[in-house]
Amino acid sequence: MKCFRFLFAVFFGTLVYVLISVPMGNNGFFAEKKLKEQKQIISAHTASIENINSELSLEKNALEHDLDVIAAYAKKLGYVSENEKLIKVSGLPSRETHVFNPGTAEYHRETPMISEGFCKIAALIVMVLVYMILLIMDINRGLVDFSSIKNIFKSSQSVTIYDMQ
Fold it and tell me: What Cα–Cα distance (Å) separates residue 128 from each residue in 1, 11, 99, 111, 149?
């Protein structure tokens, strides 16, 4: 009966540990879901930044090698080539340059979870409580006898101890 009490208490402690740890623990379902959401957000930001990078690389390459693009940018800055006449038209809006928006910075957010230590302590407390309840039930039924323990204490009180130097 003593072994059954202990195994039953260990079973319930383990059950509590699993019931807490699997859904809400460090590697639980809830934490995994939140981490996947963060991964999707970061992947979307990474893809947009890669698109901006490829557009800027194409623009840089065109500015370095394509003479027509270089001339267009020079005219935009106010430079004029030889034998070219300028006509200034007022009232038309000027063409705006494209400003790339890389988005907002995405930082790692802590995932809400229950610590591993809390799960283990809760399981240990439940195990001890179940063991104590089963022990008390066995004492009430008369299955546990403490008379042998009383005899041990009585016999130890009758022993004389001498202090010798």
Answer: 16, 11, 65, 31, 22
Token pair listed for 54:
């490829």
Element (H, E) at 119: helix 116-141
Q: What pLDDT sits at residue 127?
A: 93
| Per-residue confidence (pLDDT) for residue 147, from 0 to 100 | 67
Is residue 22 within 8 Å of 29, Cβ to Cβ? yes
Instruction: Report the interhelical angle of 2-24 vs 29-65 (nearest 10°).
Output: 30
Residue 47 DSSP label: H
Residue 138 near residue 144, CB atoms below 8 Å = yes
Q: Is the pTM of this model over 0.70?
A: no
Q: How far is the C-alpha of 56 from the C-alpha of 40, rounded, in Å? A: 24
Note whether 143 and 134 are within 8 A (CB).
Answer: no
Task: Give the single-character DSSP code of 90.
Answer: S
Distance CA 90, CA 148 (A): 112
Question: At 90, is the pLDDT very low, low, confident or very high (cuts 50, 70, 90)?
Answer: confident
Length of the chain (residues):
165
- SS3 of the chain: helix, strand, coil, percent, to 5: 65, 0, 35
